[in-house]
Design brief:
By secondary structure, the chain is mostly helical. It contains 6 helices and no strands. It has a domain of about 40 residues.
Length: about 120
């Protein structure tokens, strides 16, 4: 059967402490309304980013990254094209080296042609 005897002030305080309730001293350590006001002013709150601001920034970054990816892809295509042109140029130089007569051969051919036209 429950005891209907009321608790004294000291007993009540002891019971509340055992239950981990906050005391006056504990509450004094909490931030006051003025403390909270000093942490962020109305201007600070106005200048804080909203969800829409963050989403807009994210979209902007994604578009910038996409454009950079396009630039990189174009650069890769240009490098491939330049590599092919370099190979084609090397092949043409080799063909010219094979088909072009040496200076001695050229002089001999020149003398033959001149000899045919001077006689």
């Amino acid at each position: 059967m429950p005891n209907n005897k009321s608790l004294t002030k000291l007993e009540l305080i002891a019971t509340l402490k055992q239950m981990d309730f906050a005391t006056k001293n504990d509450l004094k350590n909490f931030a006051t309304k003025n403390d909270l006001k000093s942490l962020a002013t109305k201007d600070d709150i106005k200048n804080m980013a909203t969800k829409d601001d963050i989403l807009a920034s994210e979209r902007k970054l994604r578009s910038e990254l996409a454009s950079k990816d396009d630039v990189l892809a174009s650069e890769r295509r240009l490098k491939l094209r330049m590599g092919k042109m370099k190979n084609e140029l090397a092949i043409r130089i080799v063909k010219l080296a094979v088909d072009t007569p040496t200076s001695k051969e050229f002089e001999d051919l020149k003398r033959k042609v001149e000899g045919n036209y001077t006689s």
